[in-house]
Amino acid sequence: MTRVLPDSELEMFPALEWPVVAEHMSSESRNALDQVMASQDGSVLSREQCLLLANAEGDDLLGLLVAADMLRRDLVGNIVTYVVNRNINFTNVCFVGCKFCAFSRGPREEDSYFHSLETMAQKAIEARALGATEVCIQGGLPHGLPPFYYRDILRAIKAAVPNMHIHAFSPMEIVYGVELTGMPLPDYLKMLRDNGLDTLPGTAAEILDDDVRFVLSRNKLSTEQWKQVVRTAHQCGIRSTSTLMYGHVETPTHWVNQLELLRDIQQQTGGFTEFVPLGFVHQNTLLFHQGIARPGPTLAEHLKIHALARVMLAGAINNIQVSWVKLNRRLSQLCLHAGANDYGGTLMEENISREAGATAGQYTSGEEFQSLILEAGRIPAERNTVYTRISLKVPPDQVAIEEALEPEFA
Ligand code: SF4
Fold it and tell me: Which of 5, 36, 133, 299 has the fewest CB atoms within 10 Å, i.e. the most exposed one?
């Protein structure tokens, strides 16, 4: 019978060595992980092997975590990156009604808000003054939004800070923009690109399964629409992130389906920059209070999804990000040992997870990221949104780290 690990034992996995842990694993799980480590390619796994790993417990789970960490080291080294950015949630007014969302408000609610274009431009100017290279813009979907409002946001920000990278508009917002303007999807995306849209957040994915989506949010875009927006954006030269929300009503089979789907899209377009597992923050949500969802992920689930992503996406999407706003400090660091190599963005003002009950805060400074990463035994580096510019952040008393680096990063 499989041994269920207490959290205290699970937390010790970073100290384990592969040969020792492999000895206690089932031969099926060990063989699957050996195949990926030898080829550094997650597509060598059969669907049955992926499901086996997604359901791993006990010693097989420990083996998955250790193997994911080894793969991470082989594929992307010991550097942990982050981006200095500012989140701008330009309105919390939204008609969609996702049951996992505690951020949205009705238009007449006392604490509803809508930032003007001038306010957003001012926020971008402030962000640049604080060293941000990116603004991340997403908001609620209010009824009656002026048809070209998303374009106007881009123009206002680029006019204020011309070389600010704009990472904006979820696939749900893109579908809404298409509906508002009546433009064909490719034309709409090209129009946004030509007005300053640099990359797209691959959010609004949650679980890409229409049965699950119907439970989470009846009005949300369908799986097919999400795929269509993301594929078309990539074809128009707009790269995107990719995400999955876990710890609510989904099962490990949904994780496998989604990771396979993302890997397939990546093989066709090469447009994903990273994969971000997003833990469900349950406290203030209808989904939890109506008894539909479990109360967020367990420690085993947090670690397993990061490790499974590293293994299944190996060779396709090699940047696996921890979403620090949804995890606490210790858990984020543990996920860095379970396959992750990126700490996400400094954010400056994070509202969505905080409203749902997350307590990790609204802002982590670059300096704090650096100390968290060094504390986890890794090397911090600032990157831009598409992982092309890396500047190392090695403190003067740790030059030995710099000397140990591969030449291209030194
Ligand atoms: S998740 Fe987004 S689309 Fe859904 S209710 Fe919240 S703000 Fe609206």
Answer: 299
